[in-house]
UniProtKB/TrEMBL annotation:
CDD domains: ACD_sHsps_p23-like
Protein name: ArsA HSP20-like domain-containing protein
Source superkingdom: Bacteria
Length: 154
């Protein structure tokens, strides 16, 4: 290999045209590869390239399951509506606290945690399934009374 060969000086300093610079880079790469590999090695695809060409595309065996819930906030309730096939209802377990609704037993094996827009009374929640729609009604906590807070001096 010629140790005096400087690709930067040779291609970038004398070529002002952008297209010529990029073609100069390609020429440089071909020149370096030709010095280290015989011409027949450059034209034949490697075994790994042949493998890539014949590889089959990845096919997912398990369909992705997602819930598209809709949250409706009314004056006294938070309503969560979830389109759901009836056969999935048998495996579904729901739990709620004041700020979240959690669904277990989904086909993906995961749980779905839904943040509620207001604090609710989870012990008074009701769920109805009708026409492929699961509707969970959660009454809001209605505490409009103000309570006096005493301050201790320390």
């Amino acid at each position: 290999m010629d140790n005096n060969f400087d690709p930067v000086r040779e291609y970038f300093t004398k070529n002002g045209n952008k297209d010529e610079v990029f073609s100069g880079i390609g020429d440089y790469v071909r020149k370096v590869l030709a010095q280290h590999f015989p011409e027949s090695d450059l034209t034949q695809p490697s075994s790994s390239e042949q493998h890539v060409r014949t590889a089959q595309p990845y096919q997912q065996t398990k369909p992705i399951f997602t819930l598209q819930e809709q949250i409706i906030e009314l004056h006294g309730f938070v309503i969560v509506q979830i389109p759901l096939a009836e056969d999935l209802l048998n495996h579904l377990i729901m739990e709620a606290n004041t700020t979240h609704l959690v669904l277990y037993g989904l086909p993906s094996g995961e749980q779905k945690k839904i943040k509620l827009p207001s604090c609710v009374r989870s012990d008074s929640a009701k769920a109805i399934y009708k026409e492929q729609l699961l509707e969970i009604r959660l009454p809001k906590i209605q505490d409009d009374h103000y309570h006096q807070i005493a301050v201790k001096r320390g």
